[in-house]
Amino acid sequence: xxxxxxxxxxxxxxxxxxxxxxxxxxxxxxxxxxxxxxxxxxxxxxxxxxxxxxxxxxxxxxxxxxxxxxxxxxxxxxxxxxxxxxxxxxxxxxxxxxxxxxxxxxxxxxxxxxxxxxxxxxxxxxxxxxxxxxxxxxxxxxxxxxxxxxxxxxxxxxxxxxxxxxxxxxxxxxxxxxxxxxxxxxxxxxxxxxxxxxxxxxxxxxxxxxxxxxxxxxxxxxxxxxxxxxxxxxxxxxxxxxxxxxxxxxxxxxxxxxxxxxxxxxxxxxxxxxxxxxxxxxxxxxxxxxxxxxxxxxxxxxxxxxxxxxxxxxxxxxxxxxxxxxxxxxxxxxxxxxxxxxxxxxxxxxxxxxxxxxxxxxxxxxxxxxxxxxxxxxxxxxxxxxxxxxxxxxxxxxxxxxxxxxxxxxxxxxxxxxxxxxxxxxxxxxxxxxxxxxxxx
Amino acid sequence: xxxxxxxxxxxxxxxxxxxxxxxxxxxxxxxxxxxxxxxxxxxxxxxxxxxxxxxxxxxxxxxxxxxxxxxxxxxxxxxxxxxxxxxxxxxxxxxxxxxxxxxxxxxxxxxxxxxxxxxxxxxxxxxxxxxxxxxxxxxxxxxxxxxxxxxxxxxxxxxxxxxxxxxxxxxxxxxxxxxxxxxxxxxxxxxxxxxxxxxxxxxxxxxxxxxxxxxxxxxxxxxxxxxxxxxxxxxxxxxxxxxxxxxxxxxxxxxxxxxxxxxxxxxxxxxxxxxxxxxxxxxxxxxxxxxxxxxxxxxxxxxxxxxxxxxxxxxxxxxxxxxxxxxxxxxxxxxxxxxxxxxxxxxxxxxxxxxxxxxxxxxxxxxxxxxxxxxxxxxxxxxxxxxxxxxxxxxxxxxxxxxxxxxxxxxxxxxxxxxxxxxxxxxxxxxxxxxxxxxxxxxxxxxxxxxxxxxxxxxxxxxxxxxxxxxxxxxxxxxxxxxxxxxxxxxxxxxxxxxxxxxxxxxxxxxxxxxxxxxxxxxxxxxxxxxxxxxxxxxxxxxxxxxxxxx
Lengths: 441, 551
Description:
The complex is a heterodimer of chains A (about 450) and B (about 550).
Chain A: H1 6-19, E1 24-40, E2 43-61, E3 64-70, H2 75-91, H3 115-118, H4 122-137, E4 141-158, E5 163-179, E6 185-192, H5 200-213, E7 224-229, H6 231-234, H7 240-245, H8 250-254, E8 280-282, E9 304-308, E10 311-312, H9 319-325, E11 337-338, H10 345-350, E12 354-368, E13 373-386, E14 389-393, E15 396-401, H11 403-406, E16 410-413, E17 417-419, E18 422-424, E19 427-438
Chain B: H1 3-6, E1 29-30, H2 42-58, E2 63-79, E3 82-100, E4 103-109, H3 114-132, E5 148-153, H4 165-181, E6 186-202, E7 206-225, E8 230-235, E9 255-257, E10 265-267, H5 273-288, E11 291-292, E12 296-302, H6 304-316, H7 321-325, H8 339-344, E13 356-359, E14 380-385, E15 388-389, H9 396-399, E16 411-412, E17 421-422, E18 426-429, H10 438-443, E19 447-452, E20 457-459, E21 465-468, E22 472-477, E23 480-486, E24 488-493, H11 494-499, E25 501-504, E26 511-520, E27 525-533, E28 536-545
Parallel strand pairs in B: 5-7, 11-23, 12-19
Antiparallel strand pairs in B: 1-3, 2-3, 2-6, 3-4, 6-7, 7-8, 9-10, 12-28, 13-14, 13-18, 14-15, 16-17, 19-22, 20-21, 21-24, 22-23, 24-28, 25-28, 26-27
Protein name (chain A): TldD protein
Organism (chain A): Hymenobacter cavernae
Family (chain A): Belongs to the peptidase U62 family.
């Protein structure tokens, strides 16, 4: 039930639209099947599975809109859901930011679904946890990890003739390995569209090696260092580039409250803000990080360049802000791809006279939105590099740094890797600002 | 935070920010606001609960509990002169947790019938049996007597869901107008209201019906100086509370003045949103041209709205026993407050002035409930006594691991469909026993900074090293507030910081700071918690200047 085919989904939506008496009506069906397993202290702690399909109906009378939802799809329930959306709409205040619903659109053909991932079983998840735990136990290490997988679909239809459908799958895996004495900790993380590319043992080995290698970390003076930031430090749950990617909104910039606002008014579109090696774009059809071909409004997603050779090329425009500024609206981006070279992290280490290798960053928070200055800490694998080799583990640092400054201090860019649905290279950065030490392991 | 959860919180999503699916808030389906006033008959819930418990026992469970939960939310969102969204949501379902073969199993369903409950119980037993094959340690539950049929309700005066939406919209727009009249360029305001109707039953013989209410009014004001290109913000000094709509009727007795010369007002059990919005706009304007702080060591005087977050991060989290034991190692992290430090009985967490208690009782707090989500009656207990670490925060399956035989009653789940686990209770710094006003406290400071409101916050995964900002900063020179400062953040080590605690004001200054969305677990769950304290002084803390140029 959770993953409806295009025809099954559109048949329900057609009915919904036919029941509408509003000026405009749009209907969205979202479905997901999801499963997870969690382990810690070399034991499984929790596991679960869920599936759900829900319908969202939006009805509009003039500039008034109402939303109602349901998760059963017989005619009576559908009719009641439409009626409720219409009743709520009649009571709602007029929306000064109203834009009419979109008409029919042309979409790319999505490539973001893998049947292998949609077919994952509880036994498979238990096996993953078992393999990961066994790989650590045999080395007297302790594993804590989490696997979550899911399949989703979205179908849209509205009274202006718009019709859209896409499916997707995803698998997220992360593991933290600690030594028995608590003096070493290592982390590895990966995500996939297709489970057949997933190797829990190999990922666990990376974390285990980092844990074993990070025992007895030495203290180094805080200050400015050359760093090699692995992709997990740049994207994943906490990453230095997340904040930059999601701060590309035109409206905040135009309103004067973003690092992309221009002194005296307007935004910094067209300005060179970063090192000329920095190019960042979104592409729903990239085979390594496929994503949605339309957003929640039904706007077609396509390849979109945000930063090219250090120059700000595009900003995100919602439909309202686009109309107000007489520019094209932007579909909400679902992946970010930063171009790079061919060097692996190991190659970058080889080419470094003195520096710090950072596996992961943690608890990143805004300090000053004016400069995009953020603070956070290194975690689970921080090492000193000398003459092209990892010399010894170092105690974790707190940093205060802006991704804008960082992308102007690039020494080298490695080979992009998938993480969090994005494609991001390891970066070698000079003058990265560490401001204090932490005893945390 | 996952990439897909991240989008709602940044400017990129500003156009679409206020949809029903706000992380940690609107978990349910949209409903007619009238449905938010409904209740389900307790007798009906008891029948469904018994169906689940009987099915679990028949399938071989040695223990089972069932939570039938109706989670209601209303959120009203505005910016400047307009309403952006009004979201009314309901989430209703059943979660069943069992122990079979000494292993936990959990399953949930939105089929809220006796048959649905029984089926979920059977699924949970199936999962427990499957997982028991890779399990090495059997679950040990601290003993818990059944309470029979009991109930508890948040002691509110006015159910916020009964107040007409138009009246709430009017309040938010009036607050926005106050901010705009006082020089704000932009203002966003919101009112969140939560009602958890929770029914808990277990094979221990408890049938617990609870009606829990929470409310959170908030706003953010931004002033943009186009000429210099600078912008500064000030967030509201309200707190989410375990109160009804009475929180929004300001009472003079609930207002607490900051030190002379500071223009800060703190709020206890009621909040003056209009007054605070006006003050926020004035303060945000002053921040544009405030003096940039000279980095160095300062004595800090921290107001309770600010200090609550420092307590939360540097005491509340490290004393969660699941973190100490390693269950959160892959996400939230572990803890520096290890068992050996606690067992020594002399680990000096803070100075003698530091007395920190945990509780799930204080009226008006977010943590207050009659019973937790595994049927344990709530209580108050010491965490830090005269600076010494004396206890942790723990639930039934953890007590035995530290040689205790009683849960602390701080088990919680954000909804029927998530499994309950150990969450932070209210964690509060006890006010000083001797009479001490804020002005008297400031008078003794030679070179210091008074910080009001919580701002930027970051702490490592074992809770040693932290950095905190704030909303408003004032210089203290020779015992007097001399003017506003900007670009202030302090960095410290948890143990050094709490040992630098010099004095805390008396109970007349005590009030709550609260948090609606404390995250933990995989998949992540949100919980709400309050922290009480009075204005407190910390000596010789390292302050950095956070201003950077990006060209």
